[in-house]
Design goal:
This is ABC transporter domain-containing protein. Pfam families: ABC_tran. One of its GO terms (molecular function) is ATP hydrolysis activity. It comes from Pseudidiomarina atlantica. The chain has 9 helices and 12 strands. By secondary structure, it is of the alpha/beta class. The protein has a single domain, classed as Rossmann fold (3-Layer(aba) Sandwich), CATH 3.40.50.300. The strands form 3 sheets. A 6-stranded mixed beta sheet has the order 6-7-8-3-9-10, with helices on both faces. Strands 2-1-4-5 form a 4-stranded antiparallel beta sheet, with helices on one face. A two-stranded antiparallel ribbon has the order 11-12. A hairpin with a 2-residue loop joins β11 and β12. The longest helix has 16 residues.
Length: 249
């Protein structure tokens, strides 16, 4: 569980507060420029907050050492980078070295390789992969070490619909093992279908937090996205038909 208290980075993110439990897939949603990446980067230690506190494991996470961060949180930025000349296997091996894990390298690489179906790509260079294939490699790297807290910024960007569904199933399964998985998403139908909790950001303000049905209300969609939507809910999943709000002036 983490408790966020008045966490902010002026002027990009106004102070926000909320409490998030483990064993959850938490979706961070909002329009472009809403502050999603800023929030995740603050939690990952990539940016320094101008105010606030984050309690995790009994400590103020914002003051945690680099070693403690590496042992507890895995971060996938919006635009991850790896040397294009490296093979996929080498990228994963470097990830393990950076984590300073005692786990057997071969066994851990085999675990994430199987999770992301990367076996055919292991000996290919990163430069030879498509954008979606590279995304899967970076997600596999984020899963190295089986850490309790995953912070992923648009991990399904560039993926086709097959892999989007597969990755969301995987992330939900990761949460069910006890992890707190936080993921920035643009597809609201996938957020509604797979996430346990949503945080809706708008212009740097936390507009709503709660279950998807509560957060994705007509009022919130209109205020944050300037849209209205008809939701289609079945036993197989959730879909929606969004449309622009009509000006009433």
């Amino acid at each position: 569980m983490i408790t966020i208290e008045n966490l902010g980075l002026a002027p990009r993110l106004h102070p926000i507060s909320c409490q998030l439990n483990g064993s959850q897939l938490v979706g961070i949603i909002g329009p472009n420029g809403a502050g999603k990446s800023t929030l995740l980067s603050l939690l990952a230690g990539q940016l320094s907050a101008t105010q606030g506190r984050v309690a995790f494991g009994g400590d103020n996470w914002l003051e945690a050492s680099a070693l403690r961060r590496r042992q507890s949180l895995s971060f996938m930025p919006q635009q991850p980078h790896a040397d294009g000349a490296l093979t996929v296997a080498a990228v994963l091996q470097v990830g393990l070295v950076n984590l300073s894990l005692s786990t057997a390298v071969t066994a851990e690489i085999a675990r994430v390789t199987e999770l992301l179906a990367l076996q055919p790509l292991l000996q290919r260079t990163m430069a030879s992969l498509s954008g979606g294939e590279q995304r899967r490699v970076h997600l596999a790297r984020a899963l190295l070490g089986d850490l309790p807290w995953l912070v992923l910024d648009e991990p399904i960007a560039s993926l086709d619909i097959h892999y989007q569904l597969q990755m969301m199933e995987l992330l939900r399964a990761q949460a069910r093992t006890g992890k707190l998985v936080m993921v920035a998403l643009h597809d609201l139908s996938l957020a509604a279908r797979f996430c346990d909790t949503l945080l809706l950001l708008d212009q740097g303000v936390l507009r709503a937090v709660g279950e998807p049905a509560q957060v994705l209300s007509d009022e919130n969609l209109a205020a944050a996205f300037r849209i209205q939507a008809r939701w289609l809910c079945t036993e197989q999943g959730v879909g929606w038909l969004p449309q622009l709000l009509q000006d009433t002036d």
